[in-house]
Amino acid sequence: MRRFIPEAYNTYLQGRTDSLFGEDDLFLRPRAFIVGAFLSFFLAVGAPYANMIIRGTYMARDFSTPGAIALFLLLVGPINAVLKWAGRSLSRSLAISGCIGAAFFYSYSGLSTWDLYSPGSHLFLILLLLSLGSVWASAQGRGGFALNRAELIVVYAMLLIVSALCTMGLSEQILPMITAIFYFATPENKWQEKLFPIMGDQPTLVHDGAENTTFYEGLERGETVPWENWIEPLCWWGVFLLALYITMVSIAVILRRQWMERERLSYPMTQVALSIVQDEDGTQSWNRFFRRRSMWLGALFPLIVGSLKALHRYDPAFPTIGLLWFLPFVGKQSLRLDISFSMVGFSYFINTQIAAGLWFFHLLSKVQKELLSIAGFKSDQKVVYGVADFPFMAYQGVGALLAMVLVGLWIGREHLKNVFLKAIGRAPEVEDGDEIISYRSALIGAVGGMATMAVWMWIMGTEGWVAAAFVVVAMLIFIGVARIVAEAGLAVVRAPMTAPDLITLGLGSQLIGPSSVWNLSMAYIWASDIRVFVMGTCANALKLIEEMPPVLRRMVFGAIVLALFIGALGSIWMVFHMAYYHGGINLNAWFFKNAPQIVYQNALRNLDPTGVYWEGMSFFAGGGVVMTAMMWARQRFPWWPFHPIGFPIGANGLMDKIWFSIFIAWVLKWMLMRYGGAHMFSRSRYFFLGLICGQFLCSGFWLFVDYFTGKIGNGIFDL
User: Fold this and answer.
1) What are the b/e assignments for 503-521, b being 16+ CB within 10 Å?
2) Tens of pLDDT, residues 297-315
């Protein structure tokens, strides 16, 4: 029997080894950082505006990063195409600049009516500055202001970092949570009676002497922002957040080689940007990605469904297409069948065994929940985020997650040893020139950042050992979720149990003390309802620059730092303005009312004297043991059918929303690979990329329309 590699599959393998960058892409010019800064600031102020004022689709809530992808498509498509066309001659650049300038000055009467707090004004100004940059580049004979492949990736990496900060990840959490306790305190909730004595005169909280009324109800005529009350708390939080993000970036650098080169994780979520950049051709104005029929065929579905839903909000006469059903499963458990076009698209690039493990363990968790209910296993504890309906399974999931991380670190012990020896100068043969920072800097950043966070919490009144243990556990959970994002490509994911809940509920208030209970409750700001965070987006960004020359990678670190500052400061500035101008209680009710009240109610409830919760900790240990056994079995037995990565998060509430989309993608991919092979997979991939791009373009388009029409509450896609 003759054995050979089919030509189609050989072509596919060859394409996987082709370099992403050509000779014209092996340099980074200042324009990449300028364009990245402009678009990062627009995303930083635009995403909070979208869900606070317009109250439309969230553009930066999850690792799917809709805002980053939509802006990247806008940049790679029309903006870069126009910049290429204009860069071919000075006259073209002048013509484009003149048209945009005339429109800008006509719209804003110069700068007299330009609104500093309007995202639309910022986008218009960005386009004007880009057109002027094109004129300057053309006049200097530098071929215009268009970006090459490496520069486009840098811009996208910056947008990923900003996405982790501008809404759910930071800015919409921190300001309400450090102010709300004074505004919402009443005799009925007993916060003033029981919480005020514990928190004392803590410098991390904002109190303007009037219960922060102006922050929540808006400034009256003649009133001014009480800046003096904000300076000290924001400085304290600035120190902590700087240490947090340095730690996250440093850990991402330390683990990069192990995850990418040794374990060969697939990073499915980078496929959108990599495919778009790979289709970039400097000789043609339009990117090839936008000329692929299969991509537009895939984009057509979310564009039609989403637009009908948006139009229905304007006129109920327009029909809508339902994408949500419920089916009974076992006992009182039901299945939610929810189709998300973007989740189907992202899940198509997940390894089939991993995808099978995700939906299988979700269904298995339903069975386990029913069995626990029948057996009478009920917990009197309350877990807010993660597996909120079954606290025992929350303990089980976080135990499995931490076991996955610890086993992974043990597997990578040789690499971690090399990093340590290189950092202390004992292993000159270990190469770290291809990292964005040296291993010495990364180790100092990780250890120093974690130490700073622990000391900061100790200064605020947390017991020293509690602060140290909590920071370590929080970082391990972040590593676990980042690993799931990198390996499983889940665009929507949350830890089964948060670090504050695990330490507070698991160890008990009698062991950690009331002051620690309060401080761990305030850690909800950065360690609880966080569906996107810097470590995860940074890991994806490092994958994107994998093929860059080492000298360019070191420049990317500067871009990441710039994006961190722009994302944090820009988004906080925007939320700050909206609260004082419109009144916080008139904005997003979850962030300005519900989430802060959850923090304080949990702190109040957890102050009740409790010891170690042995029942929950037994499930914690059991989850760790089962996860370790499954990881061992997967390594030893080739026939093992399901990837265990789905076990820690299978019972998570978010999996209810996404499991069916994963299942659909798994079925389609299995069928295409079985009957069409690698050639069919290569041809079909653009259809599924179109599902992702179509959904996010639709969301961005209708936010643009709603911005000008004044429509509020026109949310189209939830995921």
Assistant:
1) bbbbbbbebbebbbbbbbb
2) 999 999 999 999 999 999 9
**279-301 burial string, b = 16+ CB within 10 Å, else e?**
bbeeeebbbebbebeebbebbeb
Q: 69: which residues sit within 8 A by CB, 6+ positions away?
A: 272, 273, 692, 693, 696
326: phi then psi, degrees, rounded to nearest 5: -130, 140
3-state SS track over 332-350: CCEEEEECCHHHHHHHCCC
Structure tokens at 539: 């890991």
501 vs 101: CA distance, rounded Å: 54
- DSSP element (H, E) containing 327: strand 324-328
Angle between helices 227-257 and 464-488 in degrees, nearest 10 = 60
**C-alpha separations of 206 from 52, 175, 397, 508, 528 in Å:** 21, 9, 36, 28, 21
Domain boundaries, the chain: 25-163, 171-217+229-709
Both tokens of residue 704? 């643009």
* Global confidence as pTM: 0.95
CA distance 195 to 388: 24
Question: Which residues, given as ranges, of the chain have pLDDT below 50?
Answer: 1, 9, 12-17
User: How far is Cα 563 from Cα 669, in angstroms, rounded to an integer?
Assistant: 36
- Tell me how far apart the alpha carbons of residues 601 and 210 are, in angstroms, rounded to a whole number: 22
For every residue of 2-47, DSSP letters joined together read -----HHHHHHHHHHHS-S--GGGS---HHHHHHHHHHHHHHHHHH
Which DSSP symbol is given to 220?
P
Give the dihedral sign, CA 641/644/648/653.
Answer: negative
Q: Do residues 166 and 570 make contact, with C-beta atoms less than 8 angstroms apart?
A: yes
Q: Is the dihedral of CA 259, 263, 264, 268 positive or negative?
A: negative
Closest-CA residue to 233 (of 516, 525, 473): 525
Give the pair of three-digit tokens for residue 116. 């500093």
Pair 532, 163: CB distance under 8 Å: yes
What pairs with residue 327 in β-bridges?
A: 335
51/593 Cα distance (integer angstroms): 15
C-alpha to C-alpha distance for 567 and 194, rounded to whole angstroms: 36
196 touches 572 (CB < 8 A): no
pLDDT on residue 23: 67
Distance CA(612)–CA(615), nearest Å, equals: 9
Token digits for 315? 């006129």
Residue 19: per-residue pLDDT:
63
Q: Which two structure tokens, joined as six digits, stand for 491?
A: 């665009």
Give the relative orientation of helices 30-49 and 550-582 as an angle to the nearest 10 degrees: 30
- Which of 6-22 are b and which e, b meaning 16 or more Cβ less than 10 Å from the residue's Cβ? eebeeebeeeeeeebbe
Q: Other CB atoms closer than 10 Å to residue 141's CB: what's the count? A: 7
How far is residue 695 from each of residues 67, 323, 485, measured CA to CA in Å?
Answer: 11, 14, 20
Per DSSP, the three-state class of 546 is: coil
Q: Which long-range contacts (CB under 8 A, 24 or more apart) does 207-212 make?
A: 207/179, 207/182, 211/182, 211/183, 211/185, 212/179, 212/180, 212/182, 212/183
Contacts of 322 (CB under 8 A, 6+ apart): none
Distances, alpha carbon 467 to alpha carbons 272, 476, 495, 517, in Å: 39, 14, 20, 11
Q: Tokens standing for 318?
A: 């327009």
Q: Under DSSP, is residue 357 helix (H, G, I), strand (E, B) or coil?
A: helix
Give the angle 94-95-101 at the CA atoms, nearest 5°: 85
Q: Report the C-alpha gap between 400 and 382 in whole angstroms.
A: 20
